[in-house]
Amino acid sequence: MAETVLKLDGVQRRYNAGSRAEVAVLRGVSLTLVPGELIALVAPSGAGKSTLLHIAGLLDRPDDGTVHIAGQNVAGLSEAARTTLRRDTVGFVYQFHHLLPEFSALENVMLPQRAKGTSVAAATDRAVGLLDRVGLSARASHRPAALSGGEQQRVAFCRALANGPKLLLADEPTGNLDPDTAEQVFSALVDVARETGLAGLVATHNPALAARMDRQVRLEGGYLVPA
């Protein structure tokens, strides 16, 4: 049986709405993700998909339920241990690239590796290889302002993969891209997942992309259901 990369069991998350009663965003989410599997998460705006991705990526904690990353129950981990596990195991891609504007494309992809302690030479080799994979080797020295929106998002994708994560979490990663560029980014994601065993949970409103993933789940009323 394949190792479980992500396991959510009965995850609940509530928010205090000020003078109003608590609002339950996640009421009991359960999900299992194995190596090489890509799952499309579809949900209307405000349904809680970003909250779910933040909990899965150790950026937030559930009020109830358990989260396992690469077989490890994260409930008892300190903030420092959560940060290390997140850095080494999880990659994030958002709708907006969030690249650091003062650094080149190459440097943006190197930064997570340097934070992990990877040598400059090894980080450079890894970054060059990733950028070449998405057709950006000739743009490696350019800063984000000199790149198109599609190029910026491909750099962000490379940055998410820089430390060789087991889990990729993506929140509308192609939402601001034209169809051709969205296809290029998605194809790179699929290729990497198949070749390396990367597991991905991808929130998307694009039905064509969602249909090409291994399965689809929908967030409805705080629960995950098959889409």
Automatic annotation (TrEMBL):
According to its UniProt entry, the protein's GO biological process terms are: lipoprotein localization to outer membrane; protein localization to outer membrane
Report if keyword Nucleotide-binding is assigned.
yes
An example of a Gene Ontology cellular component annotation for this protein is: plasma membrane
Instruction: Fetch the SMART domains from UniProt.
Output: AAA
Q: Which UniProt keywords apply?
A: ATP-binding, Nucleotide-binding, Transport
Q: Where is the ABC transporter domain?
A: 6-227
Under the heading InterPro entries, the entry gives: AAA+_ATPase, ABC_transporter-like_ATP-bd, ABC_transporter-like_CS, ABC_transpr_LolD-like, MacB-like_ATP-bd, P-loop_NTPase
What GO terms are given for molecular function? Answer: ATP binding; ATP hydrolysis activity; transmembrane transporter activity
Q: Which Pfam families match?
A: ABC_tran
Q: What is this protein called?
A: ABC transporter ATP-binding protein
Q: Which organism does this record belong to?
A: Meridianimarinicoccus aquatilis
Which family would the database say this protein is a member of?
A: Belongs to the ABC transporter superfamily.
